[in-house]
Amino acid sequence: MTTTCVVHSYRGGTGKSTTTSNLSVLLAALGKRVAAIDMDITSPGLHVIYNVSSQMMRNTLNDYIYNRCEFSDIVMDLTNHLKLPRGAVYFLGSSMKPEEIVKVIREGYSEKFFRHISEKLSREYNIDYVIFDTHPGLNEDTLLAIMSSDVSLLLMRMDKQDVTGTYITSQILRKFGKLSYVTLNMVPPNLAESSDLPSEVSKIIEAPVIGVLPFYEEVLSHRSRGVFCLHHPQHPYSSQLLRVAKRVIELTTQSQNSMPV
Amino acid sequence: MPEREFISDKDSEMRAKIRSIMSEMNTDTSKVEDVISKFEDKLEDLNSRLENLESRVSKLEKKFDLL
Ligand SMILES: Nc1ncnc2c1ncn2[C@@H]1O[C@H](COP(=O)(O)OP(=O)(O)OP(=O)(O)O)[C@@H](O)[C@H]1O
Ligand SMILES: [Mg+2]
């Protein structure tokens, strides 16, 4: 059974790509087969964190959409590249070429695109979790990704603008009938120590908060040079996010079990 | 070469649905204001509780130093 998950936030720079990449290797460490997809088609960057060079990324989602390559050409197995001892991480990148970006924005794609990709990953690569990294805000392409996925992980900082946006986003997702879980990121360290924080924020924004990730100087100064958790497995950021990964597994297994047959 | 069936379909059914749900949200702005003010109050409350705790801990530490 493949679960599709969107990592999203109302505002930019909340840590979506950092979370996507770290979550992928942590799910792999828990024995899962994961595919991370850069759906931030207007400003892709996930490949940078995975240290995927343009030479390695010969074909992108853009090439596949326009029938210029086969599916296997865009699926990169990063398991050895990242030296993962367990599980697997695959990566599907998005083109950084401006001419490709304008084309895909102008011409678009339908929801079939997401289902097609997820089904192929499930069938041909035996993937447990497909994670879509997205462009921030309530744009149509991102909402399409959300509508086509099983769960959404919304990232939010402890900032008034983020709160408003996350509240509105989760209200919309509810209208769509979609499950959304919130993770607080870049939380001031002293505040992160408050055990009441997740439940209090959940009540206010009317959406379940499943994780709290403090702001760490070390994560910021890592400057997206590789997946942080792999370089610093003992760091509290890694252990906190591991808890989120376990929670995601728990929640998605539960919802699968309760799904009508 | 024919393009794959899932592309160039910006007017798909689901896109139309997204547009219609979004247009009919009827967002209650006073409710949004309320969420923000509750959030601000809660943060202040949590912060002051933490400060309180810290000052109590430091007082305790001083006491132990004296012993
Ligand atoms: N918990 C954290 N503590 C400190 N820095 C963090 C944390 N999480 C993410 N960052 C840093 O914040 C910056 C933005 O992160 P990232 O690029 O993942 O955000 P994003 O949401 O993907 O941005 P965009 O909306 O532009 O796609 C990066 O430099 C990252 O290292
Ligand atoms: Mg990003």
TrEMBL record, chain A:
Q: Which GO terms describe its biological process?
A: negative regulation of cell division
Please give an example of a GO cellular component term from this record.
cytosol
Q: Which InterPro entries match?
A: AAA_dom, P-loop_NTPase, ParA/MinD_ATPase
Which molecular-function annotation in GO is an example for this chain? ATP binding
Q: Which domain of life is it from?
A: Archaea
Pfam families listed in its UniProt record? AAA_31
AAA domain sequence ranges: 6-165
Cite the PANTHER family for this sequence: ATPASE INVOLVED IN CHROMOSOME PARTITIONING, PARA_MIND FAMILY, SEPTUM SITE-DETERMINING PROTEIN MIND HOMOLOG, CHLOROPLASTIC-RELATED
Q: What is this protein called?
A: AAA domain-containing protein
Tell me what organism the protein belongs to.
Methanosuratincola subterraneus
Automatic annotation (TrEMBL), chain B:
Q: Which Gene3D superfamilies match?
A: Head and neck region of the ectodomain of NDV fusion glycoprotein
Keywords attached to this Swiss-Prot or TrEMBL record, sorted alphabetically, are: Coiled coil
Q: Which domain of life is it from?
A: Archaea
Name the coiled-coil region(s).
29-63
Classification from the root reads: Archaea, Thermoproteota, Methanosuratincolia, Candidatus Methanomethylicales, Candidatus Methanomethylicaceae
- Protein name, as recorded: Uncharacterized protein
